[in-house]
Amino acid sequence: MSFPRKLEDEILDHLPPEDPRAVRSRHDLNRINQLMGAASIIAGELGPHLHAPRRLLELGAGDGTLMLRLARRFSKQWPQVEATLLDQCNLIDAGMQAAFQQLGWQAQPLTCDALEWAGHKQNERWDAVVANLFIHHFSEDDIARLFEAVAERADFFVVCEPRRARLPLHASRLVGFIGANGVTRNDAVLSVRAGFYGEELSAIWPDTRGWELTERPAGLFSHLFVARRVKG
Questions:
Q1: How confident is the model over 180-190, as pLDDT tens digits?
Q2: Domain boundaries in the chain?
Q3: Which superfamily does CATH assign the domain made up of 11-229 to?
Q4: What is the pLDDT of residue 1?
Q5: Distance CA 98, CA 110 (A)
Q6: Residue 49, class by beta-carbon neighbours within 10 Å (0-12 exposed, 13-18 middle, 19+ buried)?
């Protein structure tokens, strides 16, 4: 059972990146992502459909941890990938850059607001775009703008978001038991309330002609949306 979507400002979005509460909350989110199996969910969609991609893009990449997990999973079969890590703050440090380099991948930070990126006309293309715990920050109108930009610049898009349902909402109120700080405890609940259910994201996708859309629950707490261009 779901409930109406409610979009509210999350505390982390308004803290300076160097604020100790923000640093701690990002660590919390990485642990929560690991518990939710986000990298495995996304990899399960990418693996069967991509053959030797050269360029990947992550929207709302944060410190690059999710993409690094994908690199560790795929680097042997996908060598020399350029991973563009888009975020409004550059959180990719030298250690993260080195971790990608050791796997034969190149991490390319792109410091930009996602909606500004969507609004800029450009010729750059990526083999696939991923987003994790990011799309729920936006209104339906802004999601439509992001989706239109992705559809113009890539052939494959995988989104993993909070599932807006009772079980994930109850679980979000328990993140303090894994040591999450006050910022994370507040934002986890808001994230679920702003999450997705059913085929809400498919309804926003700009044009279903030539695209195969998949939308379903993933794991206990996640909501998966996949858009793949069908080449005829």
A1: 999 999 999 99
A2: 11-229
A3: Vaccinia Virus protein VP39 (3.40.50.150)
A4: 67
A5: 17
A6: middle
